[in-house]
Amino acid sequence: MTIHNLYIFERGGRCLFYSEWHRRRGPGIPQEEEFKLMFGMLFSLRSFVAKMSPTDMRDGFVAFHTSKYRLHYLETPSGLRLVLNTDLGVPSAREALQHIYGNLFVELVVKNPLCPPRAPVQSLLFRQRLDAFVRSLPYFGPRNPQN
Amino acid sequence: MSRQGGRGTESKKMYWYLPFISPSASLQLMNSELFTLTYGALVTQLCKDYENDDDVNKQLDKMGYNIGVRLIEDFLARSNVGRCHDFRETADVIAKIAFKMYLGITPSITNWSPGGDEFSLILENNPLVDFVELPDNHSTLIYSNLLCGVLRGALEMVQMAVDVKFVQDTLKGDSVTEIRMKFIRRIEDNLPAGEE
Amino acid sequence: MAVCIAVIAKENYPLYIRSVPTENELKFHYTVHTSLDVVDEKISAMGKALVDQRELYLGLLYPTEDYKVYGYVTNSKVKFVMVVDSSNTALRDNEIRSMFRKLHNSYTDIMCNPFYNPGDRIHSRAFDTMVNSMMMQVC
């Protein structure tokens, strides 16, 4: 059980933050491209999920999984999107994402008057605290060799 | 005979909760009088710096806007409110949750326009203006204009362009403070070029 | 009911004087001014004893043939002086104390007004209303 990486996007598509822990192979394209690809996919998935939903939807797109990993997604009404990739052993990372948003991002980045809103996160404190939090999660373990 | 500061019974405590960053995070209380005095000092310093009531009003609005774009994230994180479906729901959330959370008051919502795109918030008491009396040379000053900026900035971050202004103010002799909010349009997502 | 109420700053200049209008105002101003000496005397007498419970109310400063003058000093050395008609014997000490307490509360409210600079003359409508309620109703 492990956590691969985390992305934070804002509404216009820019990636504000990226951090990885156990990523075995990269995508083979430059990081800018990777962010654009990720955002584009999320956007399409979101609108697809909304259109195809058989009943009224509250949260919309929450997660998807493949045979190798699971992607968890949290979107705030203010347009902030948090994406966490974990391995298949993690059923839901919603609380973790909410904690990262409410207690780390809002407290350390949003409330910092020196961080302009919607700009890439430079805050070292945020990175450290996030790292400490992610490592403290019960499903963060050493990378399973099979994955 | 010892003398009590007789205003102790009236001072309202505002509760600001620290989230659980660490297990020893505690409840922090702040006296609302300190907040009122801080805001008053801010406004009077702006008056001294700008000397012109209109400029002060504009600055307060700008400052409020900067606060609003950040405050909305804190509000969403703490209150867990999802997207509002229409303007009426937005009005309810603003009056019953947001004002209560940040200022400790619950304004009432009245005067809906027939099209449902304008309404008024009536504040019986405004904690920003406790003890304040506007002198005669600042009759056009909108003392609590910061609130207008905050509301405008916060709603802009959730894709609503609104116009917010004071129509009645207890400092100017009216019986209540009334804020009029008008929905202008929805701000659409604009995608970066090359997407879809 | 008071005949004249004055608020004097720490440096002994008046921040606010209001008296019943039909009387000779100058006489009241003079009375208040001379009473300041008595106030200073009382303050210095108290200061030496260093009591742990500083009494803010000074009591009767001195009686003249028509009037009685009462004093009150705050911890920041702002003094309130009240001139009361001698013929009004119904006024007891407790009432005078409560009137001073109201004055003190209104004064602190003025200090909290961000537009008021300490040391300025007092121009507050709320303070005026409160003082008017304490002055004698002269028709």
Report on this model:
The complex is a heterotrimer of chains A (147), B (196) and C (139). Chain A is globular, with a radius of gyration of 15 Å. Chain A has 3 helices and 5 strands. By secondary structure, chain A is α+β, with helices and mostly antiparallel strands. Chain B has 196 residues and is an alpha+beta fold. Chain B has a single domain (23-186), classed as 2-Layer Sandwich (Muramoyl-pentapeptide Carboxypeptidase, domain 2), CATH 3.30.1380.20. Chain B is 39% helix and 19% strand. The N and C termini of chain B lie far apart (79 Å). By secondary structure, chain C is of the alpha+beta class. Chain C has one domain: Beta-Lactamase (2-Layer Sandwich), CATH 3.30.450.70. Chain C contains 3 helices and 5 strands. In chain C, strands 2-1-5-4-3 form a 5-stranded antiparallel sheet. At the B-C interface, helix 1 of B face helix 2 of C.
Summary?
Chain B is α+β, with helices and mostly antiparallel strands and 196 residues long. Chain B has helices at 32-50, 53-79, 87-103, 145-157; strands spanning 13-17, 27-31, 108-110, 118-123, 160-168, 177-186.
The protein's oligomeric status is heterotrimer
* Overall pLDDT of chain A: 87
In percent, how helical is the residue content of chain C? 25-40%
User: Strand count, sense and closure of the main sheet of chain A?
Assistant: 5 strands, antiparallel
Tell me the strand percentage band of chain C. 15-25%
Number of strands of chain C: 5
State the strand order across the main sheet of chain A.
Answer: 2-1-5-4-3
Q: How would you sum up the global shape of chain A?
A: globular
CATH architectural category of chain A: 2-Layer Sandwich
The CATH class of chain C is: Alpha Beta
Number of helices of chain A: 3
Q: What class would the helix/strand composition of chain A place it in?
A: alpha+beta
What's the N-to-C terminus distance of chain C? 14 Å
